[in-house]
Amino acid sequence: MQKISQNKMAVRPVGSLLITMGFPIMLSMMIQALYNVVDSIFIARVGEDALTAVSLAFPIQMLMISVGVGTAIGVNSLLSRRLGAQQHKEASSVAVHGLFLSVVIWIFFAIFGAILTPFFFQLFTDSPEIIKMGQDYLIICTTLSLGIFGQLVCERIMQGTGNTIHPMITQGVGAIINIILDPIFIFGYFGLPAMGTAGAAIATVIGQWVAMGLALFFMIRKTTELNFKFKRFRPKFRTIKEIYEVGLPSIIMQSIGSVMTIGMNTILIAFSATAVAVFGIYFKLQSFIFLPVFGLTAAMISIVGFNYGARNKERIARTIRHAVLIATGMMLLGILIFQTIPALLLRLFDASPSMLDIGIRALRIISIHFPLAGIAIILSSSFQAIGKGFYSLIISIVRQLGVLLPAAYLLARIWGLDAVWFAFLASEVASLLLAIIFFIKIYRREIATLELPLIPNQG
Question: The pTM is what?
Fold first, then answer.
């Protein structure tokens, strides 16, 4: 009882708690988004073919991040619920299992990247330059990917205990190192050869490995709620199963984004390589809007998961309500930026006249769906927080595969390239309606029926 009462996720007013826990994560996500954009800006200086190559590689990077983030979300959710129920030994076991799984995932992607990367780019283009630059980039990112998986799991473990400051530091340091090293390796400064897309990949993995090392240090030395025992560790199927009850739907949900991107690239390449590059630029730019919202959900998942374990339905409801309001405000700011200065955003990437012609209309049309997306993301994340990630998976499948890709294909065939971008609005309307229906159902069955909390409500 005493341990729960001392945890800020049980006693702090949820409004200020969500902001104080979420702000460091959102800030680190903004830095992460900055490095994604800067990375593409430098690559665009190499040439439009280089930017297209990296855009074609992006779905595989999304797949890697999807598996890493999904696993980390499963660890976060289960760990938070164990802490909320005062099961500290079990929570420590969850954390160690998360580290074990990050190594297993890395081995898989290293083998995948070494064997299949040479064939991947040939699916989309027969340009030798694009294929060569894409292979140089992706092989490095996959075979040396332990850094990103270890970093993601360690950060989510710390967030699961309510610690959001140290994850902010690790993400920030990794991103800054990447930004500094990008021009050095891409263009060849300080006596190094110009390595182009391969240099961008090297800068990326170095930043990830440094961030992982720093995250391991903070997690082991500063996380007092958990006890890390590695010597006698044996993986337990039950713990892994519970992690992936939330993590697997999240992995599939986010991996669907990779499938969607591949599908959109296939639709767009029929118009031009420039259209593919514009879509890649959009994804980099929208990360400035969406990643901070995902940072907010990381804090929300920890708070909701903890209070679900502590059976405190009032704090759960208040946390979700505050998160919806904050996310909607962030998305409204995003739509304002995309509507007013799209040309300026595109010129950051040395946009050609044809890229500006396509991109300005694309950014303005796509951004219409931002506020709807913010609400849907919060509701979907609340399902993950209480161990009901399957509902989030259904929403993602409907949004990206059930509506977005078919709508984009039909709009492209009937009205052409400009109409393709309206598919994002159609898919978000469908996903939000589904998210509201699921939330009402889950709230009535899983949250409203909770017994008295383990401690009284305190704000």
Answer: 0.70
